[in-house]
Amino acid sequence: MKRRKFLKATGAGFAATGLAGILAAHRAPVFAQANTVHILRWNDFVPAADKVLREVFAPEVKKALGLTLNVETVNANDIPARGTAAIQSGNGPDIIMLLNNYPQLFAAGGADVSDIADEVGKAQGGIYDLGKAMCTVGGKWVAVPWSTVPGLIAYRKSWFDEIGVKEFPKTWASYHEAGKKLKAAKRPLGQTLGHTFGDAPAFAYPLMWSFGGQEVDTKGKVVLNSKETVESVRFMAQFWKDAHDEGGLAWDDSNNNRAFLSGDISATLNGASIYVAALNGPDKFKTEKGAPLHTDILHAPLPAGPKGQFAYHTAFTHMVMKYTKNTKGAKEFLRWAHKKENYEKWFVVQKGFAVGPTRDWEKHAMWNNDPVMLPFKAATRQGRPMGYAGAPGKQSAEAWNKYIIVDMYANAASGKMKPEESVKWAAAELAKIYT
Amino acid sequence: MGGGRAGQDLHLSARSSTEVVRVSRLTRLLESEKVLATALLAPGVAILLVFIAYPFVMALWFSLTSIRVGDPGQFVGLANFAKAWEDSIFQTAFKNTVFYTFWATVFKLALGMWLALLLNRHFRFKRIVRASMLLPFIIPTVLSAFAWRWMFDPTFSVMNWLLYHGGMIADRLPFLSSGDWAMWCAVVVNTWRGMPFFAITLLAGLQTISPELHEAAALDGASAWHRFWHVTWPLLLPVTLVVVVFSVIQTFSDFQLIYVLTGGGPANSTHLVATYAYQVGVASGLLGEGAALSLFMFPVLFAVVWVQLKYLKRMETH
Question: Greater confidence, B180 or B129?
């Protein structure tokens, strides 16, 4: 074939099928789409877990299902923007990992994955209530729970011992007292109250609940502006000044890890990533006495307030996107990944930082390896979804995403507003969302 | 064979004569100024329509609907604008944007002018200094903002680390953890980044001013300040106004720097209109509300440009 003929033929072909096809489909072409599953996830705080996806899952799923797995990882705080752009353009990853209650916001863009969720739940002892609350809309699963990262307080045992606190404080009041002494010894507590997805809401919501505050009642009426909420904010403002590293107002989810590992703070709400990092780097992270830092770290749940002890644990879920041309492949991959023998490979490298979506994973032998990680084992059972006592939905997801509860505490902690003003402000913002 | 060749030649000459006719027609067509102007403008207009007008019209349409991610929504009139107007975070973001734009522009102008005057003098390594001055402007904003974020890090900033571990301060300086400090930090970074643009443009303006004017003023006994105020400044004013207009537009709609440096925190203290619109529209998927928030920038920027260009035109006339 002559060059001119070739160009003519291919040009005509492109014009007839390519461009016209692209315009008709309202989407960019994705070549070899049928055999590929593109999954978008966060840059895992346990990098070994991403390595498992790329170096173990990808070749194995190719062998088992003939699928090419394309794993893309980005900063967790950037995932929502990617999701919005993908859904609106009708083009992007086949599966997107979503955090917290994002499945509620993105429900319209997710395929029905009830079949997978039911199978996983039935085969593995039942999906946790927290995962169910995050992923179901109108009784339909719009995402499959993948894991939970329980938030517990990582603390320096020896430093608490030195101030005479032999057992981790059980109440906010006693934690406040301990924190005062620690800050005086230049070992403050560390906590983010910044605009970040994990530690900030996982601290702020349970604090509010433990004093009896809540966003809405069971009918969805905003009831935030209560004396219980004001009391919790007043407590936090004083607690912040007395016991915390005040730089926490500008922290994201990684600052407290760095501050703890460098010996600048004595305790912080965290997944187990600090401990796992210390465990993986015994020569890098040491105590002031030269011992490996991990030998001086313990974990405890957030203390109890006047109305009880609560927790929110960061949920990680997978949404199969409605726009994907490869729904079958995406679902097959998730089914395959959730099989015990496959999921286990990812689960064990987490060492307890991320726990399974179902109760069966509490029974895994990995939990016998390290008693320091035991508090994470069944922590997800205690998780309460944002938007309590209302039903999880778009509104609670929007409130979380606008950091209204986090900012309610940050406003008072920074001295920008009085506790009463801050609660009033937050209640007014919530009212706009819930109308 | 020979007949075939003759036929081929005939065919070729007929084709070339058709081409000549076509070419001459095209040439004749392009000789018309209207047609030529249209042809030359067409690609530019097409780019403007596709990349500026279409998104703008779409944003306008979105702002009038209740569109959310995955849900086309319904026409809601001006409801999104009304909601934004009453939104306390938006009010804070708007005030922040005005504050940030005003102070960053003032500093960029003052320091840029000072730098331009210095660079207009003769000294050794002048070219290297002039080129290196552009570095902050050349480095991608995201990268430089990350570097500044490290320098202002609440726990690990260089200055805090030295002062705190040296026992000179009991509490670390709240560079990004206090709302006021964080906003001033953002102004500093924006000034650092934008000042070279001012300096290099003003320097170009300075070089068009005839040295004879300065010499004449000096002979008349004018001091350095008087020479600047009565000779340099009036002649530099048109260039200055253009630079200020560009700067105001860029600073008022700034996004990258704040997104990386503070994410709008602490407690919304550094949110700008653009970052808040992004949080609502893109991160929360409320596309209609986000579009309405971002469109609040349009009349302000339009007014700024209109007033300044009007002033510039009046100056040129006089």
Answer: B180
